[in-house]
Design a protein that fits this description.
It is built from eight helices and five strands, in the order H-E-E-H-E-E-H-E-H-H-H-H-H. It is of the alpha+beta class. It has two domains: about 100 residues, Roll (Ubiquitin-like (UB roll)), CATH 3.10.20.620; about 60 residues, Autophagy protein Apg5, helix rich domain (Serum Albumin, Chain A, Domain 1). The chain has a five-stranded mixed sheet with strand order 2-1-5-3-4. The longest helix has 20 residues. It is globular and about 55 Å long. This is Autophagy protein 5.
Amino acid sequence: MHMEARKYVWEGAIPLQIHLHESEVTTLPPPPPALILAPRIGYLPLLVGLIKPYFGSSLPPGVDTIWFEYKGLPLKWYTPTGVLFDLLCAEPERPWNLTVHFRGYPVHVLIPCEGEDSVKWSFINSLKEAAYIINGNCKNVMNMSQSDQVELWRSVMNVAGNLEAYLRVSSKLKLITVEDDYTVKLNSSSKSQQGTGETDFAGQVKTGI
């Protein structure tokens, strides 16, 4: 069940309905919105390979720098899609309606995103921060081999079928998860209850009564 739960979370996705901003539409009629099933653990800029070809013929001349907004709010590209959705949708939309821009990057609000490399290094830096918070240092992340970095990143980019690859590399980082800590406490509690002749609270049975 433990692995099934991990797989369920790993494969979580959000249906997106992505509209090209009206100021960037150069064709009549305007293109219909793009419908994409986005991985919750993925990042919006990683969808550019699907979105740009779809809207490419409708864009005005200029340099492409993709960014997204939701109800006028520019979305942080370095935050996982699932986290953005959970934070911004008090009443979850199905599909989630986003607006995509290829021009006018809001440099006063968002730090520049230079494509996949920016997202990759933001992801690695987040791992370093997590390692430091959990272990007091980030040596395990900093000492990752180049091949492990590549495999870990590819497992995030290409979600389907890569959970095993992700677990294989991430296990080397020795990051204690909340689930692991909870399991330890639960096991300790169970042993204590067995010693007093009590079952867990769900059963609500005490043999001493």
